[in-house]
Fold these 2 entries.
Entry 1:
Amino acid sequence: MARARTGVRAIGALLAAVLGASLAGCSSTGGKRAEDARKAQTAAGKAAVNTPRWTFAMVTHSGDGDTFWDIVQNGAEQAAVKDNINFLYSHSDEGQQQAQLVQAAIDKKVNGLIVSLAKPDAMKDVIARAEKAGIPVITVNSGSEQSKAYGALTHIGQDETIAGEAVGDELDKRGKKKALCVLHEQGNVGHEQRCAGVKKAFGGQLQNLYVDGTNMPDVQASIEAKLQSDRSIDSVVTLGAPFADAAVQAKRTAESKAEIDTFDLNAKVATALTAGTLGFAVDQQPYLQGYQAVDLLWLYKYNADVLGGGRPVLTGPQIISQKDAAELRIYTERGTR
Amino acid sequence: MSTTAPPATPDRTPDRATDERLLRTSPLRRLMGRPELGSVVGAVAVFIFFSIIADSFLQASSLSTVMYAASTLGIMAVPVALLMIGGEFDLSAGVLVTSSALISSMVSYQMTANVWAGIFVSLLVTLAVGVFNGFMLTRTKLPSFIITLGTFLMLTGLNLGFTKLISGTVSTKSIGDMEGFASAKKVFASELTLGDVTLKVTILWWFVLVALATWILLRTRFGNWIFAVGGGADAARAVGVPVNKTKIGLYMGVAFAAWVSGQHLLFSFDVVQSGEGVGNELTYIIAAVIGGCLITGGYGSAIGSAVGAFIFGMTSKGIVYAEWNPDWFKFFLGAMLLLATLLNAWVRKRAEASK
């Protein structure tokens, strides 16, 4: 009994110490206060229309805690507030699970569906079922080839091959001769297409390097080993913003001269672009993908409007270099770019 | 067992009054002693919870979606439960499902053979992986955790490596227009539509497997061996139970179910992604544990694994019907696992105390 009481006392003392320390040591830069100041600049939340409160569901192939999809969701939620939409989001990186989640949305009798088609074959039947139930479907991000065949209204996203080619052209423009394409998710068709696109447009040599994206230290070590073993590599292309940072670290430890370039954007990438540690980023504007998907569904429900004329609506690629990065950094910090 | 003892040894006749093995137990008592009782209580609780929270949960169409989700997991949870009763793990079960689908698809496509040929080859190879797991385990005497972890990593690599080598991409090519596809789809991935309710054939497979496993566990000699090797392998060997054969058999059971699940994946989607299935092995184990299997072996049931899978299906889809933020899904899953296991332990203690 006495021992238990000392335990409680010790925990109490510890808590008091933590609280005291956090109150005493205020930071005059960054942190929550700076974030709140930034938040004041974001769009306020109030419906701008008086259409009925429809329910739209978005089901993506995102894994847990994915930064990219977080931005897509932000865009979708912003549009949902404006359009008076009840917005539901769910995701799974297993095709079968994703199909079940779409089925669950159909069971709920939602008024519109937004689906990403990274695993198109797994989604085929369930999307047909949605259309049979009279639910309009818009596809986002991946699946531009299948979208129309499956009967979706429109596809919003970036063509991965075109994006890859844009990177290849940019590498040529910068006079690169030997590039490394870092794939962080083995088995992702879109990633393969990106690297194939780079290879197609790039005049120099391109090698693929597979790394385990769920394990950052491993990503860094793999890139490091590659840069150490091949000194002639003069550019590294990563396929996701978080991996650009790992590549920068790897370059430093391997003492390589390679330029690091990346697909996608985040606050760190924007900062690194401004500082010049990254060459360029190619963005597909995830915020726009989420925002447009909800907005176009609303337009369809309200006015039977369809955008794109039966072709995908492209949100990228947009090459971002040092001069554009400063402005975008503010937007990346609030989670919209 | 004959109840009349041989007259030569009258002193060996068990006395009905004092021998606890021959005591007549009341049906309620017997129910209290079942491994799956705790999970059934849990399942009812989860069901009532989501019925109240999510208004679309009780629709027939929603329940059929829940059943489908439960069945895809349940088919694998049954043999995994049996294996755990036998005191072993299989961490390669998740990727083995993907392997099995990949083999069927690629053999059929590359050989331009009837799809059934690919299915058959896939069955042989998948069973061989099961035999390999069991054989390595019994030969090396290493813990099954290590052996199957090795198999898991090797299969993950083989799935991707072979697919890329043969198909040139990370997913297989479509076999939807080949001979035998339609009939195989009927067997592994057909659905029965009644009004707005779609019942998938996996639910039937699941029920059949549960019934079969329950019969094996409770009514056959092999079932006794499973409990024996899980309870204590050395003691079991001493009384003449073929421990190695039993364990290899159990791994083959897991392989068979992985083959069924893999064919379902292939024939419902017609194309297989090579990187999938990682992490599912833990889900199967969770379903078995929620259903009352002990991690240490020697205790559990097949029906329990089905209830565990059903709880899992209800939770994963119930969160969607309840319109909750999916970020918290894993948290609820973990909390539920703990609660269910605690409930199991409590029910079991009560049951043993009341004997």
Entry 2:
Amino acid sequence: MSNIDLNLSVGGPQGGGIDTSSNMISRAFASSGYNVLGVREFHSNIKGRHSYVHLRIKQERPRSLKYPLDFLVALDPDTIFEHLDDVSTGSTVIYDKNDESSELSQARMIMRDTFKRINSTLQENGFELNVKGALELMKKRGARIVGIPFSKVVEGVELDGPATRYANVLGASLTLSIIGLDRKFTKGSLKHIFGSKEKVIELNGKVVDAAYDYCSENKLSGKTLADKDAPPRMLLTGNDAAALGKIMGGLRFQTYYPITPASDESAILEEHEHIKWLSSENEMLTKGGITVVQTEDELSAITMAEGAALTGARTATATSGPGFSLMAEAISFAGIDEIPVVITLYQRGGPSTGLPTRNGQADLMFALNTGHGEFPKMVMSSGDVEECIYDSMSALNYAQRYQLPVIHLIDKNLANTSDFVPKIDTRLVKVDHALKTEHRDDFKRYTLNTDNGISPMGYFGKDIFWMTGDEHDELGHVTEDPVIRDQMMVKRFRKLQLAAEEIPDSEKVLVYGKKDAKITFITWGSQKGVVLDVIEALKARGIEANLLYLRMFEPFPSKFVQDFLSKAGTVIDVESNMTGQAAKVIRMNTGIEITNFILKYNGRHITEDELVSATKEIVGKKNKTVVLENGA
Amino acid sequence: MAHNFRSDVAIDWCPGCGDFGIVTGLTQALSELNYGPNDVVAVSGIGCSGKTPHYLNIAGVHTLHGRSIPYATGVKLANPRLKVIVTSGDGDMLSIGAGHFVAEGRRNTGLTIILYDNEVYGLTKGQAAPTMALGERTKGLSKPNIYGKVNPITLALSSGYSFVARGFSFDTKHLKDLVKKALVHEGSSFIDVLQPCPTYNNINTMEWYKSRVYKIDDEKGWDPVVLPDTPAQKVNEKFNNAYSRGLEWEDKIPIGVFFDNRAIPSFVKRIAENVPDYLTNPPSDQIVAGPDGFTNVDPFKTFADRVI
Ligand SMILES: Cc1ncc(C[n+]2csc(CCOP(=O)(O)OP(=O)(O)O)c2C)c(N)n1
Ligand code: SF4
């Protein structure tokens, strides 16, 4: 197998089949034994605006993405303009030759401000304001330009509908041929994607052949890459992973109100209402499925999930910032009434509807402080697709075990990252149940007779008990008695203390790299991978760095973090927000103030190259805060 | 022995409040239907009405302001065997909770919803509720009501509720019969209960209502029932009759069953068509792990389409 490391972007109009192109490339490489990591970037638009997928292909599993691109595949003129700055020496640009004469002024789908920026870049460098000019600039910057007349490639091929409909498959096939992947893998990917749609597979297969034939006739084909057998793997996005984790974790009731990027998770759950079981020896174990309800709003989503939880069902909801804002009151209710419920919070760029389809990590403080009054809740976060599976299982478990709301943070970048997961360990996380009552007549749902704060759960339909959002007595009836109030507050918070004691530090925080490294990065969420890659890149230059990776914010591993940071060298906080929220949480819990920041809040994913150079700036003491700006 | 549906919690409503009659009607209906204590759950919102579950000797949840319907829907959908009663005020259900009220009509889950209709916000001291008429001025208001009125009956009909009725809290026997009908109805049932609030509403008093209410059920030829084989034209006719009776107010106020459509499948039934074993093994009852405590789900089979 060749040791390749390729960064590749396929861009085109939203709705133009970018997902299929990226899927073809990912799956073709996967079946020849490579690994691919991908992030999807798109506008809040259904058809027309620029969207692209950034992929990295390696033999070992890639953890981050990098610029400049090795391949830019432009399915439309906008892509050439939008990614003007993403290519450099060694890049190959593949585009439709017929687009060459397209004027920048005709690229109506480019955002006004982006348009102005591209316009002045071309003008300042003295190039024509069209695709040709842009390509010349790219060429001047060292890129290899490969123009292919797309329509000509498929001339004579009998297709169903206009050739433009196949641009995505054609673009992917040309690229794979130029890179040097054997045609059988490219064709094989069609079967993965289109499944039983024989006719579609056949038609697209002809497009693949045409592309490969064209490349070989025109001496464009790359040297054939070696391949080898790889174990079966799953290609999962963060959304998929969260859904899968929930299914494995025993979720039986999910509510949602549509919002990007959260609703994909619920759609996936809906497709998998019928669970596939490990074995069917015990009939009871193979009965049932998941009920997914699309509600009228988020107020309904969270309250419906809580209502369902009162019957014993494992319930969850998924949302993003604006919807989570609406849920705050009911999260407080789950707090006082000790209702197990999971809220998967997909962060995106805020405030308000902010950047609805772009990345953000600015809801950490809000998640921690959500809801009025003081009550125990848990806040955890995942950083890659694999973690997302197990964390979603754990979130359901913790909600049950401690009878409280659990907020599981995922960011848009992770939600829309696709990665290969080779193995799923069904025995890594045990399915934990709530402490249950024996059904008795004098059942006290909120008994104070407990050392660890956990009163046995009762379930509607099986036990009689009451609940109220007001302070309540042991039976669940309203009380304003000052003594009971104090006891209930203490009882509820005792559970959080229990969680802090019981859950091992390794589930809350991880350290990667040598303990005594000169540089310590702090990060959370989807930045984990890119920081790990940067640590390796720095090591190659003789600089030792490590990572303090945060996974749980409530309960917070205060002592561990304090011990670790008090011995650390240069500490740099890396986050996708403007105010360094994780650093604030650290200061709140440990008193340690972090002063170096690498932050990104333009909604795009952090790439390895920009993180390396930002680190150099900080270590070289040029700056204490570096704001990252890459991204189309 | 029949279960005692009244809990031993002391009721703290004002003397003379119409809410007492609703609790009486409710508990009597539950007894007469011979329900067991674990067959029924009460869900309320916030307000004087919101306290109802505490006064009932069945499991109950006194939820957030306006959110009783989605809470109740969660309970019902996770365990469809349960009868779920929603008790909510006019402010609670038709102002802050209006979106849920309409959505529930579309769902027709199978809840029994009882509106404590006193035209005022009781617990927050008498502000105008959405059921109060424009220009009306009860004693708690410094100026006449500046809002128009929502009509709960026609709103419920328009939203799709399959059982729509009105009761009067001082006619507990009639109210009890309505509740019984509502509880056995398969889809969602809605009962608008005229509930005098002597503390804040000095206009729509017990006497005011008593001189106006009349029972439509007693009228010859009144038949609000729609069956699966009722022809479409007949359904429209029944709906229109219900709607125009729903508009009556002032001199004569109809109580009784306006519309009883048994042909629309409940949301519970609609889900059962998608999820196998939903009714026999609902979310509340499913075993979610193998005997060893680990997941009984096969990830590679579940996501077979993502395996390469
Ligand atoms: C979100 C929220 N807003 C406001 C309140 C304050 N509040 C308590 S009771 C109530 C009015 C209830 O009126 P109604 O539903 O008509 O019931 P009634 O008291 O008349 O039975 C309000 C607004 C609250 N508890 N929660
Ligand atoms: S304020 Fe009105 S509605 Fe509330 S308890 Fe008193 S009389 Fe009843």
